TrEMBL record:
Protein source organism: Sesamum indicum (Oriental sesame)
InterPro entries named in the record: PEBP, PEBP-like_sf, PEBP_euk, Phosphatidylethanolamine-bd_CS
GO cellular component: cytoplasm
Broad class of the protein's primary localization: cytoplasm
Compartment(s) of residence: Cytoplasm
Family, as annotated: Belongs to the phosphatidylethanolamine-binding protein family.
Entry-linked PROSITE patterns: PBP
Entry protein name: Protein HEADING DATE 3A
Length: 177
């Protein structure tokens, strides 16, 4: 009997908590320093203090993308009443380039969890056109689904997440590698 491989985004409850089920259609690579983010990997606050390098696939630089980075576990996984906390928002990223070629509309705020293990989720959307997505007025209680609906972004085209906890934290959510 063949063993069914589950999507790491489902295992990590990204699908459900942050986005609905979708089919990934664009490559998304996120690097902190020289380390690539793989779904469910563990990164500590010092490793994510600086804005990551993000590469977006696609074969047409006339197609634009929006990238969001959210924490669905803010302020703590057991009481996520600030869900989702927006850590970064970049729009107008041309296909086959990276976030540095886009427009940073909400500056990068490094994750600094104080309690528990937090999931930090990068979600990539295809835009309908350039300069069609704008910054929200707040970071806390940002809702990726509502944001996507407001700007007619449709389903995500890619997503990746990592786990992060304070430097002295131990135990908790299991990695999915």
């Amino acid at each position: 009997m063949a063993r069914q491989i589950r999507d790491p985004l489902e295992v990590g409850r990204i699908i459900g908590d942050v986005v609905d089920s979708f089919r990934s259609s664009v490559d998304l690579r996120v690097y902190y320093g020289g380390r690539i983010v793989i779904n469910g990997c563990d990164l500590r606050p010092p490793q994510v203090a600086n804005q990551p390098r993000v590469e977006v696939g696609g074969d047409d630089f006339r197609t634009f993308y929006t990238l969001v980075l959210v924490d669905p576990d803010a302020p703590s996984p057991s009481n996520p009443h600030l869900r989702e906390y927006l850590h970064w928002l970049v729009t107008d990223i041309p296909g086959s380039t990276g976030a540095s070629f886009g427009t940073e509309v909400v500056c990068y705020e490094s994750p600094r969890p104080t309690m528990g293990i937090h999931r930090l989720v990068f979600v990539l959307f295809r835009q309908l056109g350039r300069q069609t997505v704008y910054a929200p007025g707040w970071r806390q209680n940002f809702i990726t689904r509502d944001f996507a609906e407001l700007y007619n972004l449709g389903s995500p085209v890619a997503a990746v997440y990592y786990n992060c906890q304070r430097e002295s934290g131990t135990g908790g959510r299991r990695s999915v590698n």
